[in-house]
Each structure stands twice: as structure tokens, then as C-alpha cells.
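WARN no homologs supplied; continuing
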Amino acid sequence: MRKNIFFVCLAAVMALVLPQVNHAKELTGQLEIFSWWAGDEGPALDALIEVYKTQNPKVEVVNATVTGGSGVNAKAVLKTRMLGGEPPDSFQVHAGQELIGTWVKADRMEDLTFLFKEQGWFDVFPKGLIKNIGTDDGIWSVPVTIHRSNVLWFSPENLKKWGIEAPATWEDFFIAGDKLKKQGIVPLALAQNWTANHLWESVALGSLGADNWDALWAGKLAFDSDAGVKAWELFGKVLEYTNDDASSLSWQQATDMVIDGRAAFNIMGDWAAGYMSTTKKMVPGEDFGWSASPGTTGQFIFLSDSFGLPKGAPSKDNVLAWLSVIGSLEGSDAFNPLKGSISPRTDSDMSKYNDYGKSAAADFGKDRIVSSLAHGVSANEGFMNDFAAVMEMFLKSRDAAVAAKACQQIAVKNGIGK
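OK structure emitted
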């Protein structure tokens, strides 16, 4: 009897030990990390890579960044590589339908459920976030950020000088905007066309409300409904308060317009906080201020950057080590304070974050959370690509009814609500 108990215990111990021995082996070779975090967003990625290299000193890390805000250029390069059978080891992708509706649906990703169990991530990542990176068949990526889309940025000193306040509603904005125009100030800085998509989701949420916003993506509210048309009408009016040279600017240059006083406001994700605090060395709450975009107080448009394991990745063991780092407390808290985002982990050390990060974390804990269209949570890449064409059309025509009808057509085409 004692002999049997001994072997049962030995088997149990070996079951626990063997996986640890496997992951403890010294890794070599290369790890190619594919992302769009270049330039001003590079220091945050460098900090994350440094954590990985400290743990895996014999692995050569290839930082394969492709420049372009919101990944507009990187996604095109990635598509060519994935469909050509030459995937990178791991690539940045927005959690949600950008990942699931594109690469998971095409059976190009490995299930990471085993890694989530091994690392204890089911206990530290919010259930709602895990839902956005998973399906009934598995979990497909590891989140590294929580970003907020609907943020209005401004200079407190300049607003005081111009005699205005941060607007809580779009009607407040139009009143302030008319006052700013008379002083020769651009009310709202805008950049190249993907930032128009970004602006649209904040305007549409403010117009529709959270329930109707969610109903759009569930197929329960038509894009060409009266409410949908009114959202486009409001967006068209907002555009009248933006700069004429928007299409020639990067998002950083639009943010610079607010910093140097050429513009009063900019609606951009909180990577702008990373840009202002990390690159520009500005103090949050003093040199720059923020609030929810007009009409969206108490609502948080979220997006999350994540990395996964493509099928056929050249260095699978190295990728698993990389994913373990980005999901770790150490990796998350090395990266996010520099990026302007907050950690997706519920046990993050908030003493490492500035006042904006602490504010965003508090809002994420209490606000109504809704999904971002512009950054891949709400809809698949097919809809996002078609929506970009609708936006191009609207920027020229300003016809709200036509834009709303076109949105409904592409929603049906891309299976929204099915």
C-alpha cells in the first residue's frame, strides 16, 4: 500500500516539475516581433524587449516595426506575409474582431488557453477582456495594454487664456468653437484619415449613447436608422471646426497643434498621453489636461493591443517566452507607463503610473465600457477597410444619409450581427 502511495505521489510531483523544466531551458535563435510601435512609441516597446532579453539573453530579438498610426501600413504588410505562408514569430493585433474575425476565422492562430492556465492569467485579466480575445474554441492572444479612445486633450493654461472650458457636450463645444474661431484658433485638431475614423466613434457614441452603440455591432440597430443618420450629421458639423490641412498631418502633429497653441482640443487615444509625457516631457494635469470627449462622460471606449502565436511561426518556444513576458506583471508595468496606456492586469502597481494613468485606471473600473471600431474591437478587418472608404466618401460629400446607408450595406456584407 505504501509503495503504491509513493508512486502516485512521485507521478504527481513529476507532472508539476516537467513543464517547469521545459520552460526553464535556455532559449537561443531569433524572435521577430512585428508591430507598428515606431518613433515616439518605440521607448515603451524597447522597455518590454529589455525585460525579455534579460530573461533570454541568447535570443536575438528582431524588432520589425512598420510605421503608420493605428497600424494602417503594418496590417497591409502583415496580410501579405500571413497569406504568403511567412508569418512573423508574433505580431501586434488589436484584441476583438480585428484578431478573431480575421486571423482566427482564417485558422491562422494557435490556441493559447494552456498558457493562460499555466501563467494564472484567468485570475488577473478581467473576464470581459478575455472574452474579447477568445471564442468557444480557444484564447488567441495575450493583451498588453488597455487604451482609451474617447479622450479630449487640451492645455489648461491656453483654455484659461482664451476664456473657455473643456466642453462636456457637443453643444458646449460649438459655443466654445465659435469663440475660438474669432481668436484665430483651430477648435479641434485633426490629422490623416484614420484619425477621422477615430474621431467618428467618439462623436457617434456621444450622439447614439452606449446602448445604441452596442446595438449597432450586435445588428440590432441599423446604421441607416434615424439615429444612425443623426450621428453622421453631428460628425459633419464637428468637422467644420477642424483644420483644413488635416490629411497631411500625423496624429503627433495634430497633438503638437494643441501643445503649441494653434489648436484648442484634440480627440485622440491615450497614446497621446505617452507622447506628451514620455517624448515631450510634459507633466500631466499641469502641462496638459484631459476629459472624456463631449457627450461621453461615464463611458470608456476601450481597445487593447495584444500579441499571439501564428501557426507556422519559426520560433515557437521563443514566442511563448515573449507572450509570457508581455502578460507578466513586470512586463506590463515596464511598458504601459511609457505608452500612456494602463495595464490589463488587475494587480498592476499603480505607483508606477502618472496622474493620467491613475485617472484612466479609475475610470476603467467604474465607467460603462464600450468597444472601439477604429481600433479593431467592434468589427472585423473587412468592415474596417470598407468603413475607411465610406469615410473618404463622406469627407468629400458630407452627405449623412448616403454615408449611413453605405455603412448599413457594408455591415450586411461583413456579417455584423450574425
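The CA atoms of residues 283 and 388 lie 35 Å apart.
OK
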